Amino acid sequence: MNNESKKIEVSESNLKAAFEVADESTKKVLVALFGKIEPTDDNKPSLKDYKSIRSYADACKALDESVDEETLSKAGVPKHIIAQMKLELICKALWGGEVKVYPDPDGNRIYWYPWFALYNQSEIDGMSDKERGCLLSAAANAGASAGFGYLSALGRSSYSLAYGGFRLCLDTEEKAEYFGKQFLELWAEAIAFNFSVGERLK
Length: 202
Prior knowledge:
By secondary structure, the protein is mainly alpha-helical. The chain has a domain at 9-40.
């Protein structure tokens, strides 16, 4: 009679799958054999799926890095600067772990940036079509340089310059829209203007 014991290897994914379909008594047996078993999280943040990055915490988890908010605050760094740093980290996660924004003198590359108009809905509803068109205007000499937009105290509507928002650009329009809407409160904190975020955009 052969009393040699055989070694059986079980992959972590198979173990978790078995645990999820097991009844309570079987789960106790599996825990006794393998120790605590964490359930599979199908919604965990992934750098391969930008929509799984739903919060700043998700970005930190996916990248395994974070902004040292406590140290920065103690050093006197303003909240809006810390919010900007958080947005940069989120942008990195939305890119898939590496920001790939590079200056392109030939103009062959297109990047996208969330655009915010600081008007409330009643103000926009009261505008004529011509006035609405001015919301997205930009000086030709500046807009031709890069086309990244932001609001400026120099003009009634908006302005475009190469140094505005370059590090927060993304590679698709869809990602940029998601970046702006999903993280709206953090954008508001970073812009640090005297306004509040109204109804949450879906």
